[in-house]
């Protein structure tokens, strides 16, 4: 069974560096961690110039930020940290991972010593949570991105559709104006409006050229009480 403890030689202790155990199983797990992070979308993990510590800690920080988990600690990560900064950062990462409810247990010294066998299940859990969060909020993010794009840009098809809609709207307004109600008759000034709601409705309809049935119990109005407003009209009967 592999030990999870890190071993410091006097030379490395003076230099503030952690001795990375060269073990075949650890190397295999480290490669699996890098492949898992790259598959999840953290493409910086495949940069050959980065140290394994930078790849692992950077990937864990990226997963925590992708999970959109509300934390009260600063997870600012940059490459080539000092030993003190590495210790502080790994302690904060372990604290956040525990608060997120990660089942696998992880200690700061295991991250510092690149104990890939114990780091791998935690990375696996973080990647799973990150993918679930991305799937949950992916549609909303995509819709918001499309909305922001359409606020400032438009493709030729949309411009053509908008131009077609403007033309159709103008044609529709012209047709509605042509076939809208037009007044053909107007009651002469000084004439008295007929009594009764039915008669008033009937005469109003006649003013716009609609021949409706005469309401019952009404007598024909004498001719000459209306004036024709249509083309070629000389007079007519209203109500």
TrEMBL record:
<dbReference type="InterPro" id="IPR048747">
    <property type="entry name" value="CCDC93_N"/>
</dbReference>
<dbReference type="Pfam" id="PF21673">
    <property type="entry name" value="CCDC93_N"/>
</dbReference>
<dbReference type="GO" id="GO:0006893">
    <property type="term" value="P:Golgi to plasma membrane transport"/>
</dbReference>
<feature type="region of interest" description="Disordered">
    <location>
        <begin position="210"/>
        <end position="239"/>
    </location>
</feature>
<protein>
    <submittedName>
        <fullName>Coiled-coil domain-containing protein 93</fullName>
    </submittedName>
</protein>
<dbReference type="InterPro" id="IPR039116">
    <property type="entry name" value="CCDC93"/>
</dbReference>
<feature type="domain" description="CCDC93 N-terminal">
    <location>
        <begin position="25"/>
        <end position="131"/>
    </location>
</feature>
């Amino acid at each position: 069974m592999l030990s999870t403890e890190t071993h410091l030689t006097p030379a490395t202790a003076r230099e503030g560096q952690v001795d990375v155990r060269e073990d075949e199983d650890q190397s295999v797990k480290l490669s699996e961690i890098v492949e898992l992070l790259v598959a999840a979308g953290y493409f910086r993990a495949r940069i050959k110039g980065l140290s394994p510590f930078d790849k692992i800690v950077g990937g864990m920080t990226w997963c925590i930020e992708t999970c959109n988990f509300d934390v009260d600690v600063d997870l600012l990560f940059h490459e080539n940290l000092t030993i003190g900064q590495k210790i502080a950062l790994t302690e904060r990462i372990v604290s956040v991972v525990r608060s997120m409810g990660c089942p696998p247990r992880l200690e700061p010294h295991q991250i510092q010593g690149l104990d890939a066998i114990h780091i791998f299940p935690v990375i696996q859990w973080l990647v799973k949570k990150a993918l679930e969060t991305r799937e949950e909020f992916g549609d909303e993010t995509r819709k918001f991105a499309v909305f922001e794009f359409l606020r400032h840009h438009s493709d030729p098809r949309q411009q053509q559709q908008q131009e077609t809609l403007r033309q159709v709207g103008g044609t529709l307004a012209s047709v509605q104006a042509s076939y809208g109600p037009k007044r053909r008759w107007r009651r002469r000034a000084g004439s008295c409006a007929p009594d009764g709601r039915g008669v008033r409705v009937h005469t109003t309809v006649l003013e716009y050229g609609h021949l409706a049935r005469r309401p019952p119990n009404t007598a024909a109005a004498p001719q000459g009480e209306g004036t024709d407003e249509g083309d070629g009209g000389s007079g007519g009967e209203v109500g």
